[in-house]
Fold this sequence. Notes:
The chain is mainly beta and 522 residues long.
Amino acid sequence: MQYAYNKNREEVPEPIKADVQGSLPAWLQGTLLRNGPGLFSVGETSYNHWFDGMALLHSFTFKEGEVYYRSKYLRGDTYKCNMEANRIVVSEMGTMAYPDPCKNIFSKAFTYLSHTIPDFTDNCVTNIIKYGEDYYATSETNYIRKIDPYTLETQEKVDYMKYITVNLITSHPHYDKQGNTYNMGTSIADKGKTRYTIFKVPPKADDSAKKKLCLKNLEVVCSIPCRSLLHPSYYHSFGMTDNYIIFIEQPFKLDILKMATAYFRGVNWASCLQFDADDNTLIHLIDRRTQKPVPTKFYTDALVVYHHVNAYEEDGHVVCDIIAYKDSSLYDMFYLANLQEPLKNNKLSSKPSCRRFVLPLQSEKDAAIGNDLVKLKSTTATAVKEKEGSLFCHPEILCEGAELPRINYDFNGKKHRYVYITGVELTPVPTVVMKFDVDTRQMLEWKEDNCWPSELVFVPSPNAIDEDDGVVLSVVVCPDPNKAAFLLVLDAKTFKEIARASVDVDMHVDMHGYFIPPCPQE
């Protein structure tokens, strides 16, 4: 059964009570906040790509054994401009918007000029980020939108460029135990240089009584020069351990000159992304203590990675698990024209695989060229010494057909055992969610006919002892109109369903999200 990816969804601004079947743990309190595209046409104009759709926030709130659902469109400048014009007037990555043909020549000329150096959209459709005590809808541009995580009201617009020179930013930050948020972005041709900048945002502003924005106290951790001034790498996430940050500079690159002329040439910005299968991938390892890259250069074959699983340190090595592809066909698969094709006609040319890279922290100067410097006995991953002293890394394949990885975040940067993933083969439709045991390589599954589950989110139980003490949540959309969408609740240890909260609404497929535990006073 086909899902209508290009259908506009109605928002549900007031909370409605879900029909709970099964038994929810009494300790499960808080709000699961999710983000994803929900509106794909305005007036007579339509978006080309699923990632371009207008952001529709939705949430499930657990309160005293009951679940409440609501959804609201993110009412940023992009949304307001499009609605006011009754057409798409703000460009997105896969959809270039052009002036209204009724505009005069001067208005058209100004519009073309403004796209030479793009002022990106604030349609923050990808994820939710927490800075301090505030929550923001985010995509991958320099704009984020503060939101009320409980009412889903859209609040102020924040421009990263006021605090740090970055044009593109990841939507997958990291959080440490002290409440700091780490993220990274790309500065394009600033003062003649293109670089990647890793930054830290403290949990509170200097004068918290005045509720100042935490970004005002942003600190640069490290800046890394791009391998090519006009061809920065695209990246969606990065890895972090207690002492290191892992950034993968992949040969999936943005052509800046093509991007600057895309509007004039009548093509979208996504067409300026190019994958070079003949190039290699450079893995940067940054020491958080010195705030500098380690001297050793780590390389591997050409790949495309969107999501890091986790990274940790073990016996003089950094172990980094990622979900990787052999090419960039994933993005093309999500053009709406392709999504409306029968599933058998819209397939990836590269199945995603969970790959483990192992990076030795001590490069043996006396080691012979061709020697493998990985000393861990628990992996088949290698790091082979080359002529210039660099190491060429070959990963261990942990599993295949997996995407959207999540772990118990208490183990972020630590050695983990379990990964919660959606199962995808060669199509865009996830029909199964899985718990993967990295140690035994065993897989537990949940699936049901005509059910499309989303990214899993792990919620630990109070006073948890084991890594998998808790529940995992997934928003499940049903293409069958006779079957209501629901929030699935699985016991994380057994991976058995313990409850579901059904809602009779036309729910959208989302991307990523964040679980907000209740405030202490609640």
